[in-house]
Design goal:
Elements (H helix, E strand, L loop, with lengths): L2 H12 L37 E10 L2 E11 L4 E5 L6 H8 L7 E6 L2 E2 L4 H5 L2 E4 L11 H11 L4 H14 L15 H13 L5 E5 L7 H16 L3 E5 L3 H7 L2 E6 L2 E7 H5 L4 H9 L15
Parallel strand pairs: 3-8, 3-9, 6-7, 7-8
Antiparallel strand pairs: 1-2, 1-4, 4-5, 9-10
Helix pairs in contact: 4-5, 4-6
Length: 298
Amino acid sequence: MPGVRLSVYVVAMTHQTGPGGGPTPDRAPAAPSDTVTPAPPPTSPPDPDAALSLRGLWKRFGQKIAVRALDLDVPVGSFYGLVGPNGAGKTTTLSMATGLLRPDGGTVHVRGTDLWAHPDQAKATLGILPDGVRLFDRLTGLQLVTYAGLLRGMDRDTVAERAQSLLVAMDLAADAHTYVVDYSAGMTKKIALASAMIHAPRTLVLDEPFEAVDPVSAANIRDILADYVAGGGTVIVSSHVMDLVQRMCDHVAIVGAGQVLAAGTIDEVRGEQTLEDRFVDLVGGRTRAEGLEWLRTS
């Protein structure tokens, strides 16, 4: 495989860059305070037993506060859904929680390990499917998954065995030698998920994993993830589909305006309502379609 691509990918995986293009420091700096008051320091320590423990996460872009003093604990072995309207801060939160984006304040602990103090140790236990994932699409599907395994320091025999198993599980075996650039959107999502799972991570963080995936493939992916959780893994998934989260997940957090509005088991959060109704009650924004009488056909 091309050595230059490997070098570029290694740099992208190990050294995130700040706004000026320089390397991100190991620990996140304090939030800027020129026009926006920073979040107060966390009032409770992180949970050392949680798969993921976020405390006082804070991020802004210019004058827009994307995430504001967000706290969240994801239990080990849970299938955790993160839901919220567009612009709620879900992707920003997951990006900071996995080391892809530097927070302005707050802490992230992965099974008790400070992500920003010990990034290599913490990231080694994570499998990540980020939003808008960009892949080396001039590799074949098999080459891409193999590539991901070798980057994780795995031996070639183990990588080869696992890559074949993942391609079969994702229904991509027939397209193993097809270039990723020629994959459909759903196939691209599945090969990216296979790449995230090749090293058998303890926690999977998946941002909209079912977007553009056909129903049959989505059902297969749900089965794979359910088996993964049954085997002791933890899955954190963001989605806009309330019914999917309600059926698939055992825990959920509803995020709005950069904060957690409710979190807990599915039953605790929804109460006597459906998850969708509870979601709408918390985030608001429902409007009546008035003034569109002209759309009526009779």
